[in-house]
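Summary of Year 1 activities. Much of the first year was spent building the evaluation harness for sequence design. The harness presents a backbone, in tokenized form, and records the residue chosen at every position. We chose the following record to illustrate the format because it has been used consistently in internal testing since the harness was completed.
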């Protein structure tokens, strides 16, 4: 089945609650997106707000406090919020990459796979049902002579030694205490909503269709880039996709073969081009899901304007499903910078989006500045 790029855009906008917006709450939106990046907490709130028909400030924070969402190091080693009952599938696939067993990782951090296993056991015992700050957790670990030499790595804000433990379901983030991060066990944070980590094949049977249901059509390599940064062993990746059998269907988009959920085939074929205009915040999943190397969504010449230094993903202007520019707030003014060559969105549509963003920290008035170079 051949699918036009404009059909892909229109279908993704609908599936990601961008046209139309969701009537449900934060948990439904986060679940449909397979998680929302929360490295910057305000970005997660914005991602939910721009998809809500009736946005409510603090929706993500309330769902975390209620144990409906869990905050954990997940895709690509970055902080995400995920539905408590669905997080285990994505974490299990990350654990299956066994990143900490690779020589490059061991050279970088000086920790053997055996020590990671010992850390996992020790952290699980220290946390129990408690909530500990990083200082409290590290102090408890380095009191054990086995881990005393790891104090510097354990205190690192990047959490390199703790991420493999998160992927194994040992810890997640708890509520901030005095502006400091805390850690607890997923079961303590979410109660019986936490289902633990399934076996790899079971995890893939949940996670891959969920991803394709929001970001398809996509290749196995695109899924792996989104999930693990491309670290999954290729034979395993191909095997996990093949095991889904007729649950998936192959399509052709601009001469490239990709996969969708078979149940979405008719809807995707019937999709018609969209003229919707949306202003999306930093680190939005519309960008991160397919990745900034998806030239059907973002022209390669403009990629550096969206994917910035230090992993920063800019707020973007989406017109008809394509990224048409970037935006920022300066002195409470929302400044839109359109890419040259892109069809300019109607000003009324941009003004309506700017008004929606204001309660989510997107500024007040709108100003369209010169096109980005």
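For this record, the design step produced the sequence shown next.
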């Amino acid at each position: 089945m051949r699918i036009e790029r404009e059909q892909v855009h229109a279908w993704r906008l609908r599936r990601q609650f961008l046209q139309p917006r969701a009537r449900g709450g934060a948990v439904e939106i986060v679940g449909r997106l397979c998680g929302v990046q929360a490295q910057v907490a305000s970005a997660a709130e914005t991602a939910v707000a721009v998809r809500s028909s009736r946005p409510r400030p603090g929706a993500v924070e309330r769902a975390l406090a209620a144990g409906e969402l869990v905050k954990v190091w997940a895709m690509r080693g970055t902080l995400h919020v995920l539905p408590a009952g669905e997080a285990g599938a994505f974490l299990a696939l990350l654990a299956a990459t066994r990143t900490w067993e690779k020589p490059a990782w061991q050279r970088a951090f000086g920790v053997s796979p055996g020590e990671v296993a010992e850390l996992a056991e020790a952290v699980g015992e220290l946390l129990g049902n408690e909530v500990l700050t990083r200082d409290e957790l590290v102090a408890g670990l380095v009191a054990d002579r086995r881990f005393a030499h790891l104090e510097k790595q354990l205190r690192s804000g990047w959490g390199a030694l703790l991420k493999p433990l998160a992927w194994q379901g040992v810890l997640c983030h708890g509520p901030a205490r005095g502006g400091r991060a805390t850690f607890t066990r997923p079961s303590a944070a979410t109660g019986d909503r936490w289902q633990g980590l399934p076996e790899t094949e079971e995890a893939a049977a949940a996670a891959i269709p969920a991803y394709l249901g929001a970001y398809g059509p996509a290749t196995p390599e695109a899924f792996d880039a989104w999930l693990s940064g491309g670290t999954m062993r290729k034979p395993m990746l191909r095997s996990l996709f093949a095991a889904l059998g007729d649950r998936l269907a192959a399509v052709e988009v601009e001469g490239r073969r990709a996969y969708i959920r078979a149940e979405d085939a008719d809807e995707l074929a019937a999709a018609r081009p969209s003229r919707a205009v949306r202003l999306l915040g930093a680190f939005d999943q519309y960008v991160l899901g397919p990745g900034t190397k998806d030239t059907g969504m973002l022209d390669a010449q403009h990629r550096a304007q969206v994917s910035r230094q230090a992993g920063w993903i800019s707020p973007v202007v989406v017109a008809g499903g394509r990224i048409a520019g970037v935006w920022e707030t300066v002195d409470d003014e929302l400044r839109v910078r359109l890419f040259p060559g892109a069809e300019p969105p109607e000003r009324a549509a941009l003004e309506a989006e700017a008004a929606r963003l204001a309660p989510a920290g997107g500024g007040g008035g709108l100003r369209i500045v010169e096109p980005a170079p």
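The chain has a mean pLDDT of 94. Quantitative recovery figures across the full test set are reported in Table 2.
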